[in-house]
Amino acid sequence: MSILVVGSVALDSVETPFGKRERVLGGSATYFSTSASFFTDVNLVAVVGEDFPEEHTKFLSSRNIDLNGLSRVPGETFHWKGRYGYDLNEAQTLETHLNVFETFRPVIPAAYADAEYLILANIDPELQMEVLNQVKNPKVVACDTMNFWISSKPEALKEVIRKVDFLIINEGEARQLSGESNLIRAARSIIAMGVKNLIVKRGEYGVLMFNGHSLFAAPAYPLEEVFDPTGAGDTFAGGFMGYLANTGNLTDEGVRQAVIFGSVMASFNVEAFSLDRLKSLTYPEIEARYRTFKQMTHFEGVNEL
Ligand code: AMP
Questions:
Q1: CA distance 151 to 261
Q2: The domain containing residue 242 runs over which residues?
Q3: Which DSSP state fits 216?
Q4: Helix (H, G, I), strand (E, B) or coil at 196
Q5: Distance 146 CA to ligand 1 centre (A)
Q6: What is the C-alpha to C-alpha distance for residues 224 and 238, in angstroms, rounded to an integer?
Q7: Among residues of the chain, what percentage have pLDDT more than 70?
Q8: What pLDDT is stored for residue 138 in this prediction?
Q9: Residue nearest to atom 14 of ligand 1 (CA)
Q10: How far apart, in Å, do the first and last CA atoms of the chain sit?
Q11: Residue 220 falls within a domain, yes or no?
Q12: Is residue 245 included in any domain, yes or no?
Protein backbone atom coordinates (compact mmCIF):
# COMPACT_ATOMS: atom_id res chain seq x y z
CA MET A 1 0.00 0.00 0.00
CA SER A 2 1.41 3.40 -0.91
CA ILE A 3 1.96 6.27 1.53
CA LEU A 4 1.06 9.90 1.10
CA VAL A 5 3.54 12.33 2.67
CA VAL A 6 3.13 16.05 3.05
CA GLY A 7 6.00 18.02 4.53
CA SER A 8 9.00 20.17 3.80
CA VAL A 9 11.47 19.73 0.97
CA ALA A 10 14.42 21.90 1.86
CA LEU A 11 17.91 23.07 1.26
CA ASP A 12 19.73 22.72 4.60
CA SER A 13 22.93 24.27 5.87
CA VAL A 14 24.24 22.08 8.66
CA GLU A 15 27.21 22.23 10.96
CA THR A 16 28.28 19.39 13.25
CA PRO A 17 31.57 18.87 15.13
CA PHE A 18 32.64 16.74 12.13
CA GLY A 19 32.03 19.14 9.30
CA LYS A 20 29.83 21.62 7.56
CA ARG A 21 27.58 21.47 4.47
CA GLU A 22 25.84 24.37 2.71
CA ARG A 23 22.46 24.14 1.00
CA VAL A 24 22.34 20.37 0.78
CA LEU A 25 19.19 18.35 0.18
CA GLY A 26 17.00 18.17 3.29
CA GLY A 27 13.47 18.61 4.56
CA SER A 28 11.13 16.49 6.61
CA ALA A 29 9.30 15.03 3.60
CA THR A 30 12.55 14.32 1.75
CA TYR A 31 14.01 12.19 4.53
CA PHE A 32 10.65 10.55 5.18
CA SER A 33 10.00 9.65 1.52
CA THR A 34 13.47 8.32 0.86
CA SER A 35 13.37 6.13 3.96
CA ALA A 36 9.82 4.85 3.29
CA SER A 37 10.69 4.14 -0.36
CA PHE A 38 12.70 1.09 0.77
CA PHE A 39 9.40 -0.49 1.87
CA THR A 40 6.62 0.87 -0.33
CA ASP A 41 5.59 3.44 -2.98
CA VAL A 42 5.46 7.03 -1.83
CA ASN A 43 3.40 9.97 -3.10
CA LEU A 44 4.93 13.30 -2.12
CA VAL A 45 3.12 16.62 -1.72
CA ALA A 46 5.36 19.63 -1.09
CA VAL A 47 6.67 22.80 -2.66
CA VAL A 48 10.06 23.96 -3.86
CA GLY A 49 11.32 27.19 -5.41
CA GLU A 50 13.03 27.85 -8.72
CA ASP A 51 16.44 27.36 -7.08
CA PHE A 52 15.80 23.68 -6.25
CA PRO A 53 18.43 21.69 -8.17
CA GLU A 54 17.20 19.31 -10.83
CA GLU A 55 19.55 16.58 -9.53
CA HIS A 56 17.46 16.38 -6.33
CA THR A 57 14.18 15.85 -8.17
CA LYS A 58 15.91 13.25 -10.31
CA PHE A 59 17.13 11.46 -7.21
CA LEU A 60 13.65 11.39 -5.63
CA SER A 61 12.09 10.09 -8.86
CA SER A 62 14.78 7.42 -9.07
CA ARG A 63 13.41 6.10 -5.75
CA ASN A 64 9.93 5.66 -7.23
CA ILE A 65 8.68 8.62 -5.25
CA ASP A 66 5.75 10.07 -7.20
CA LEU A 67 6.35 13.80 -7.61
CA ASN A 68 3.03 14.79 -9.22
CA GLY A 69 2.22 16.63 -5.98
CA LEU A 70 5.55 18.48 -5.80
CA SER A 71 4.98 22.02 -7.04
CA ARG A 72 7.75 24.28 -8.22
CA VAL A 73 6.81 27.93 -7.80
CA PRO A 74 8.57 31.28 -8.16
CA GLY A 75 10.75 32.10 -5.15
CA GLU A 76 13.31 30.32 -3.01
CA THR A 77 13.10 26.84 -1.53
CA PHE A 78 12.56 26.46 2.23
CA HIS A 79 15.94 26.85 3.92
CA TRP A 80 16.89 25.60 7.38
CA LYS A 81 20.21 26.29 9.02
CA GLY A 82 21.18 24.31 12.09
CA ARG A 83 24.08 23.36 14.26
CA TYR A 84 24.86 20.41 16.52
CA GLY A 85 27.39 20.44 19.34
CA TYR A 86 29.06 17.32 20.69
CA ASP A 87 25.69 16.35 22.16
CA LEU A 88 24.28 15.31 18.82
CA ASN A 89 20.81 14.73 20.26
CA GLU A 90 19.72 18.35 20.12
CA ALA A 91 19.79 20.59 17.03
CA GLN A 92 20.18 24.30 17.47
CA THR A 93 18.16 26.12 14.82
CA LEU A 94 20.14 29.11 13.58
CA GLU A 95 17.82 30.22 10.77
CA THR A 96 14.46 29.17 9.35
CA HIS A 97 13.51 30.73 6.02
CA LEU A 98 10.03 29.52 5.09
CA ASN A 99 10.32 31.16 1.64
CA VAL A 100 7.89 29.37 -0.73
CA PHE A 101 6.26 27.70 2.29
CA GLU A 102 4.88 31.02 3.42
CA THR A 103 2.20 30.99 0.74
CA PHE A 104 1.98 27.23 0.20
CA ARG A 105 -1.48 25.66 0.40
CA PRO A 106 -1.26 21.89 0.00
CA VAL A 107 -3.58 20.58 -2.69
CA ILE A 108 -3.86 16.82 -2.63
CA PRO A 109 -4.09 15.48 -6.20
CA ALA A 110 -7.35 13.55 -6.77
CA ALA A 111 -5.35 10.36 -7.31
CA TYR A 112 -3.97 10.60 -3.74
CA ALA A 113 -7.21 11.47 -1.93
CA ASP A 114 -7.93 7.81 -1.11
CA ALA A 115 -4.55 7.33 0.60
CA GLU A 116 -4.71 4.74 3.38
CA TYR A 117 -1.38 5.69 4.95
CA LEU A 118 -0.72 9.36 5.54
CA ILE A 119 2.18 11.10 7.21
CA LEU A 120 1.91 14.72 8.14
CA ALA A 121 5.61 15.45 8.30
CA ASN A 122 6.94 18.55 10.00
CA ILE A 123 5.17 21.61 8.57
CA ASP A 124 2.82 24.29 9.84
CA PRO A 125 0.02 22.51 11.79
CA GLU A 126 -2.58 24.60 9.97
CA LEU A 127 -1.37 23.06 6.72
CA GLN A 128 -1.38 19.62 8.34
CA MET A 129 -5.07 20.16 9.15
CA GLU A 130 -5.81 21.23 5.57
CA VAL A 131 -4.28 17.98 4.38
CA LEU A 132 -6.29 15.90 6.84
CA ASN A 133 -9.45 17.52 5.53
CA GLN A 134 -8.60 16.49 1.97
CA VAL A 135 -7.82 12.84 2.54
CA LYS A 136 -11.07 10.86 2.60
CA ASN A 137 -10.68 7.93 4.91
CA PRO A 138 -7.09 7.19 5.88
CA LYS A 139 -6.43 3.97 7.79
CA VAL A 140 -3.27 5.18 9.55
CA VAL A 141 -2.20 8.78 10.05
CA ALA A 142 1.09 9.74 11.67
CA CYS A 143 2.27 13.22 12.49
CA ASP A 144 5.53 14.90 13.37
CA THR A 145 6.20 18.46 14.49
CA MET A 146 8.93 20.54 16.13
CA ASN A 147 9.61 23.18 18.80
CA PHE A 148 9.11 25.97 16.23
CA TRP A 149 5.40 25.01 15.79
CA ILE A 150 4.79 23.97 19.42
CA SER A 151 5.65 27.48 20.52
CA SER A 152 4.16 29.42 17.59
CA LYS A 153 0.92 27.48 16.92
CA PRO A 154 0.11 25.30 19.97
CA GLU A 155 -3.68 25.32 19.55
CA ALA A 156 -3.63 24.41 15.86
CA LEU A 157 -1.17 21.65 16.67
CA LYS A 158 -3.32 20.23 19.48
CA GLU A 159 -6.26 20.03 17.12
CA VAL A 160 -4.20 18.02 14.62
CA ILE A 161 -2.70 15.57 17.10
CA ARG A 162 -6.13 14.55 18.39
CA LYS A 163 -6.96 13.28 14.91
CA VAL A 164 -3.87 11.17 14.24
CA ASP A 165 -2.99 7.57 15.15
CA PHE A 166 0.70 8.13 15.89
CA LEU A 167 2.31 11.30 17.12
CA ILE A 168 6.07 10.97 16.56
CA ILE A 169 8.11 13.63 18.37
CA ASN A 170 11.43 13.91 20.17
CA GLU A 171 11.81 14.08 23.92
CA GLY A 172 12.43 17.83 24.05
CA GLU A 173 9.24 18.38 22.06
CA ALA A 174 7.29 16.02 24.36
CA ARG A 175 8.43 18.05 27.37
CA GLN A 176 7.64 21.35 25.66
CA LEU A 177 4.18 20.22 24.48
CA SER A 178 3.19 18.86 27.91
CA GLY A 179 4.99 21.30 30.19
CA GLU A 180 6.29 18.27 32.16
CA SER A 181 9.97 17.50 32.57
CA ASN A 182 9.55 13.82 33.48
CA LEU A 183 8.99 11.86 30.27
CA ILE A 184 6.46 9.40 31.68
CA ARG A 185 4.36 12.25 33.03
CA ALA A 186 4.83 14.12 29.77
CA ALA A 187 3.57 11.08 27.85
CA ARG A 188 0.56 10.69 30.14
CA SER A 189 -0.34 14.31 29.67
CA ILE A 190 -0.01 14.09 25.86
CA ILE A 191 -2.15 10.92 25.77
CA ALA A 192 -4.72 12.86 27.83
CA MET A 193 -4.81 15.48 25.05
CA GLY A 194 -6.40 12.79 22.87
CA VAL A 195 -3.32 11.28 21.20
CA LYS A 196 -3.85 7.55 20.52
CA ASN A 197 -0.20 6.46 20.28
CA LEU A 198 2.80 8.54 21.18
CA ILE A 199 6.30 7.72 19.95
CA VAL A 200 9.05 9.66 21.68
CA LYS A 201 12.42 9.70 19.91
CA ARG A 202 15.36 10.01 22.26
CA GLY A 203 18.29 10.23 19.84
CA GLU A 204 21.11 7.91 20.85
CA TYR A 205 18.94 6.59 23.73
CA GLY A 206 16.32 5.08 21.44
CA VAL A 207 12.55 5.28 21.36
CA LEU A 208 9.65 4.99 23.80
CA MET A 209 6.15 4.20 22.58
CA PHE A 210 3.09 4.84 24.76
CA ASN A 211 -0.56 4.20 24.06
CA GLY A 212 -2.29 4.60 27.38
CA HIS A 213 -2.16 0.89 28.27
CA SER A 214 1.34 -0.24 27.34
CA LEU A 215 4.89 0.99 26.98
CA PHE A 216 7.50 -0.25 24.50
CA ALA A 217 11.13 0.77 24.89
CA ALA A 218 13.68 0.23 22.11
CA PRO A 219 17.33 1.26 22.30
CA ALA A 220 19.06 3.02 19.44
CA TYR A 221 21.48 0.97 17.39
CA PRO A 222 24.90 1.62 18.98
CA LEU A 223 27.07 3.42 16.45
CA GLU A 224 30.70 4.39 16.69
CA GLU A 225 30.44 7.12 14.09
CA VAL A 226 27.63 9.65 13.96
CA PHE A 227 28.24 12.48 11.51
CA ASP A 228 24.96 14.31 11.06
CA PRO A 229 21.74 13.64 13.00
CA THR A 230 19.66 15.87 10.70
CA GLY A 231 16.62 14.00 9.48
CA ALA A 232 17.02 11.09 11.89
CA GLY A 233 13.47 11.63 13.15
CA ASP A 234 11.96 11.77 9.68
CA THR A 235 13.98 8.78 8.56
CA PHE A 236 12.70 6.91 11.61
CA ALA A 237 9.12 7.85 10.72
CA GLY A 238 9.69 6.77 7.09
CA GLY A 239 10.89 3.31 8.11
CA PHE A 240 8.10 3.01 10.67
CA MET A 241 5.25 3.98 8.34
CA GLY A 242 6.86 2.29 5.33
CA TYR A 243 6.93 -1.03 7.13
CA LEU A 244 3.33 -0.64 8.37
CA ALA A 245 2.12 0.22 4.87
CA ASN A 246 4.07 -2.69 3.40
CA THR A 247 2.70 -5.32 5.82
CA GLY A 248 -0.66 -3.82 6.83
CA ASN A 249 0.04 -5.42 10.22
CA LEU A 250 -1.31 -3.04 12.86
CA THR A 251 -1.19 -5.50 15.77
CA ASP A 252 1.01 -4.62 18.77
CA GLU A 253 3.70 -6.97 17.37
CA GLY A 254 3.55 -5.39 13.91
CA VAL A 255 3.80 -1.88 15.32
CA ARG A 256 6.79 -2.89 17.48
CA GLN A 257 8.53 -4.36 14.43
CA ALA A 258 7.85 -1.10 12.62
CA VAL A 259 9.50 0.83 15.48
CA ILE A 260 12.63 -1.30 15.04
CA PHE A 261 12.66 -0.80 11.25
CA GLY A 262 12.34 2.94 11.91
CA SER A 263 15.27 2.80 14.32
CA VAL A 264 17.36 0.82 11.82
CA MET A 265 16.71 3.41 9.08
CA ALA A 266 17.56 6.33 11.40
CA SER A 267 20.79 4.61 12.45
CA PHE A 268 21.95 4.49 8.84
CA ASN A 269 20.93 8.06 8.11
CA VAL A 270 23.13 9.61 10.81
CA GLU A 271 26.25 7.91 9.45
CA ALA A 272 26.76 10.63 6.81
CA PHE A 273 25.68 14.18 5.93
CA SER A 274 22.36 14.98 4.29
CA LEU A 275 20.87 11.90 2.54
CA ASP A 276 24.25 10.54 1.51
CA ARG A 277 23.98 7.28 3.47
CA LEU A 278 20.38 6.63 2.40
CA LYS A 279 21.53 7.06 -1.19
CA SER A 280 24.03 4.22 -0.94
CA LEU A 281 21.94 1.98 1.35
CA THR A 282 20.65 -1.40 0.17
CA TYR A 283 17.73 -3.47 1.47
CA PRO A 284 19.95 -6.42 2.53
CA GLU A 285 21.87 -4.02 4.78
CA ILE A 286 18.57 -2.99 6.40
CA GLU A 287 17.61 -6.62 7.05
CA ALA A 288 21.03 -7.44 8.45
CA ARG A 289 20.87 -4.57 10.91
CA TYR A 290 17.32 -5.56 11.92
CA ARG A 291 18.63 -9.05 12.77
CA THR A 292 21.51 -7.61 14.80
CA PHE A 293 19.02 -5.39 16.61
CA LYS A 294 16.97 -8.45 17.55
CA GLN A 295 19.98 -10.34 18.91
CA MET A 296 21.20 -7.28 20.74
CA THR A 297 17.96 -6.75 22.66
CA HIS A 298 17.02 -10.37 23.33
CA PHE A 299 17.32 -11.82 26.82
CA GLU A 300 16.04 -15.01 28.44
CA GLY A 301 13.53 -15.18 31.27
CA VAL A 302 14.66 -16.48 34.68
CA ASN A 303 12.72 -19.38 36.33
CA GLU A 304 9.11 -18.27 36.38
CA LEU A 305 9.92 -14.74 35.20
P1 AMP B 1 14.73 16.14 12.00
O2 AMP B 1 16.22 16.21 12.20
O3 AMP B 1 14.26 14.75 11.68
O4 AMP B 1 13.96 16.75 13.09
O5 AMP B 1 14.38 17.01 10.70
C6 AMP B 1 15.29 17.85 10.07
C7 AMP B 1 14.65 18.45 8.83
O8 AMP B 1 13.54 19.27 9.20
C9 AMP B 1 15.64 19.34 8.10
O10 AMP B 1 16.03 18.72 6.90
C11 AMP B 1 14.89 20.66 7.89
O12 AMP B 1 14.90 21.08 6.55
C13 AMP B 1 13.46 20.39 8.34
N14 AMP B 1 12.91 21.52 9.11
C15 AMP B 1 13.55 22.29 10.02
N16 AMP B 1 12.73 23.24 10.52
C17 AMP B 1 11.52 23.06 9.90
C18 AMP B 1 10.23 23.73 9.99
N19 AMP B 1 10.03 24.78 10.81
N20 AMP B 1 9.22 23.27 9.22
C21 AMP B 1 9.43 22.22 8.40
N22 AMP B 1 10.59 21.55 8.27
C23 AMP B 1 11.63 21.95 9.01
A1: 31
A2: 3-297
A3: E
A4: coil
A5: 8
A6: 23
A7: 100
A8: 96
A9: 27
A10: 39
A11: yes
A12: yes
Nearest CA to ligand 1 atom 21: 123
- H helices of the chain, in order, are 28-36, 54-62, 125-134, 147-152, 154-161, 171-178, 183-192, 232-247, 252-269, 276-280, 283-297
Cβ neighbours of 243 (radius 10 Å)? 26
What is the C-alpha to C-alpha distance for residues 190 and 127, in angstroms, rounded to an integer? Answer: 21
DSSP 8-state class, residue 210: E
244-263 pLDDT, tens digit per residue, is 999 999 999 999 999 999 99
Residue 305 in any domain: the answer is: no
Report how far residue 170's alpha carbon sits from residue 157's, in angstroms, rounded to the nearest whole number: 15
Residue 304: per-residue pLDDT: 83
> How much is the pLDDT for 213?
86
Q: Does the predicted model carry a pTM greater than 0.85?
A: yes
For residues 244 and 39, is the Cβ–Cβ distance under 8 A?
A: no
Q: What is the CATH number of the domain that holds 23?
A: 3.40.1190.20
- pLDDT at res. 87: 84
Counted domains in the chain? 1
**For residue 296, what pLDDT is reported?**
94
Condensed to tens digits (0 to 9), the pLDDT of residues 121-138 reads: 999 999 999 999 999 999
In a domain, residue 243? The reply is: yes
| CB-based pocket (< 6 A), ligand 1 | 8, 10, 12, 26-28, 80, 96, 122-123, 146, 148, 230-234
Contact 77, 30 (CB under 8 A): no
The closest alpha carbon to 95, from 76, 117, 78, 118, belongs to 78
From ligand 1's centre to the CA of 91, what distance in Å?
A: 10
Report yes or no: 36 and 3 within 8 Å, Cβ to Cβ. yes
Determine the 3-state secondary structure of 31 from DSSP.
helix
Give 21's Cβ-side CA count (13 Å radius).
21
Q: What is the mean pLDDT of residues 4-20?
A: 96
- Evaluate if residue 225 carries a pLDDT over 90: no
Helix (H, G, I), strand (E, B) or coil at 169: strand
